[in-house]
Amino acid sequence: MDFSPEFLDAIMKAAAYLGAGIGMIAGLGPGIGQGYAAGKGAEAVGRQPEARAEIMSTMLLGQAVAETTGIYSFVIALILIFVV
Amino acid sequence: MQPGPKVLAYFLGNENLPITDTLLASWLLVILLILFAYILKKRLKIVPGRIQAAVEIILAFVESQIESMLPGEGRKFLPFIGTIFIFVGVSTVFGLIPGLVNPTGDINTTLGMALMVFLYSQYLGIKRKGVGTYIKGFFEPIFLMFPMNVLGELAKPISHSFRLFGNVVGGGIIITLLYQFFPWFIPVPLHFWFDIFSAFIQVLIFGMIAISYISVAISD
Amino acid sequence: MININWTLIWNVINFFILMYLLKRFLYQPLLEVLDKRTAKIEGDLKAAADEKEEARLLKEQYEAEMARAREKALEIIAEAEMRGKERAREIINEAKEEARRIREKNLEEIQLAREEARAQLKEEIATISLFIAGKYLQEQLQKEQQLQLIEKYINSLDRGKLGEV
What we know:
The complex is a heterotrimer. Chain A is 83% helix and 0% strand. Chain A is an all-alpha fold. In chain A, helix 1 packs antiparallel against helix 4 and helix 2 runs antiparallel to helix 3. In chain B, 72% of the residues lie in helices and 3% in strands. Chains in contact: A-B, A-C, B-C.
């Protein structure tokens, strides 16, 4: 079976875009993690309203670290879209 | 649409030495920061003015962050960590100036800094613990963990740099897409979120993680 | 978009230049200023505390002196009162003494006067007796006359001379 180079290129592009989209499912993980952290943060603020600033900064830090996996998938999606 | 650094010229016509817009932006930024520091130094007073007070607050904040993880060594690490905070912080909002780009929107910038932090922390680990203890650290808790430990250590600069890069570029891409859909005003408030709030949190994280890598490396 | 190249090294060099120059222009001078300010504030606070302590000591001293002065004043007043009372008693005693002396003197004078009067009286009585005797001798011749005379005289004597004494 013979395919023209244009067709192969199109198939590759399609696969890359599909891969990028599937890869972004990893966005679930940080979403759940950050939501959990935010919930715990709200609980902590409810328990200790005077420590609000401290809790907020700790929560944001933890959330940003939890975001790492999402960022990885995002970078991979970027590579798939723009580089492949 | 092609996000990422654009090659503007080649250094001495060499294909391996590109000069990108992010590199130019970071040069400009370094020059501006040095000028600012020089002018500030000339005007340092015992009773601080507004700018001096702001700079003092920033440096005191950085020092307190270092002190919280490396007790008693805030002064020693202030130049390194403080420069990371200042450079990354300013370069993350640098793209807000029209015609300029974020130097941190280039993986070379963030990876360079992450590698620097990585090498510095490994150097400090060897210096403080001794070569034997340092190498032994890779075989703990058992011998079989050696590859995992090495991988874990090598993953540090990668996650460190890609986190900041991904956030900056991601924010930039979303803003660019929005500008394509709504060319007027609507994307403007989003700059506050993506380019200022989120960026500052990422800068804070970048600096804090640099401190914690050093602290982990030199602690037993 | 993600291609790692030599700009990484450029950025690292950038960073080191920035770090070195910021260290020279920002961190060291700023930390120096911060240290200086800390030292100044500490010095000021210490000086203020010292001054306060000094003032406290001075106040204590003053208060002690004041208390001493008050005590002394009270002492002086008490002494003066005591002396005054003593003096008053002395004056009263003197006055009593004086009064007693005056009375004694008066009594003495009275006694003297009485004795004198008695002596005078005695003398007078003697003179009168002599006179009477003389008269009696003279008037033996005229017995009747004489008797009358004597009676008359005694009568007058009773009324005049003796009544006076």
